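Sample entry follows:

_____
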Amino acid sequence: MSGIIAYSVIGGISVAAATAFLVMYYSRPGTPKLVYFCTYFSWLTTFAICFILPLDLSPHADKGGLKVAWRAMYWSSFLMNFIVIPMLQGYYDAGDFTVRRRILSSLRFNLVLYGVAGLAALIFITYFAIKNELTWSVTVGFTICIANAFGLFLSVFLLGYGLVEVPREIWHSADRSRTLSHLLYQLANINTEAIEIRQELWQTYRLFDNIKPRLPRATLYRDRWEEIVALLPEEQYIEDMPIRRAAGVDTLPIVKTLENKEVTMEGLVKLNFHVKALNRNLWVVDGLYRDTLEKVMKMDDLLAKQNAIAGVDWSAGLLTALNHGLTVVWKPKMLHAWAAFCMAMSLVLIWCEVTILVNVDLSIVSALIRGVESSPFFVQMFTLLFLCYLTWCACYGLFSVRLSRYYMMNKHRRTDENSLLLNASFLLRVAAPLAFNFGELLRIDDAAFQSVIGQMSVVPFFGTSFNRVFPITIGVIALLTYLNLFGRFMRWVGVGRFEYEEGNGESDDMIAEGQMILRKERRKRGVRSEPSSILLQTI
């Protein structure tokens, strides 16, 4: 019992502290406190499963207390995911000027979501009323089933992607030449996006010049106008902006809507929404450009050191030799070893997923847990290991995939509130399906968590067999990801991570453009203008 208490205290403090660090690491300065709270709560709830579920498998755990904890976590997450976060997303994304108007805009924004939920509830009530089985437990089971079905769809796609991409990215990170090419490709793409945003900024300033003389004299209009002007980027972006509107550049929709038109309050709301988004995108992309440029310079210098000295020069002094050996010589080998371990973990978990329907227990994870079931400590440690890796792979896609300018999780405090809330919502949706799926991999049916979420079995198919059949598709998605077919499709529909394909002519052109940007930036800083690495010299 003392071991369980120690595990709970250490695990709880560790997860809470790590979650707080991650929230601060991603959220940009000035993020509203409500967004901080919702993001922290959502991430904490998701990550806490990694240490609570192993506790649930202990024979000495208080199952009654765990059931209460699981119910509290599940239903608070449900309310946060389907009511609080959608309302906050609509509120902070609205262009309205008053709290009341922003709340109303948020309600209109979420009307479709609530309408679909209402229609599903109506169908459910009708179906079970006809069967004369409409009870409170059935209603609860149906609600869990609907939430779990969407979360299971999302978690299966994320796992199929992450179980392949996590070890592959670690393996590729050991190849510094490839990493430098990737960073140069990213730098060129980000530079292109920065140019596009500055073109939009130039058009926006022209629109302001067009609207200002026609602004009504009413105090309310003038006050709203000043609020919008205060949101515009600083003047340095105008002075330093190398881009002017070029031939062929598309006119912004907001310009077509408001230019040479009567100025109305509705028009100012639209303009406010546009300026907020433009200001946010400019700040994020400029930060990404600086961060990526620093990474390119560091990797270029590191590759130059690697090419200059083949091994460790112990004559340079112990600390210098150890530092050189660790960062230049030994780190790639350690990354390859780490990637091999992750690859083995992924293969084990994919095998367990695709054999989940077989009557014979072929789960390697289940076999390992049964092999050490006499030791509660090792049961918890093995469960923690596999569950943490499974969660890592599921979260990997959510923290790396980018949806144009609408959703991107940027490190170094560069993530806006909309992306934080969307990420929090997605994590809450996959948390319960991940835990339930992991229980299926272990072939257990007596955990307290399963008794809570198992209430969805009252719904035919989607509450029963669907939860065991659909995860098999993880193997198919993993294969598509391994062959890069899934990634190509995602990039084709506009969901990408600035990936490139080696040997692709377009990618080579972007890398060459990144090389020119690097040379220009080095000259601006007064350092050598020629690249130091063999890779850059041969492009």
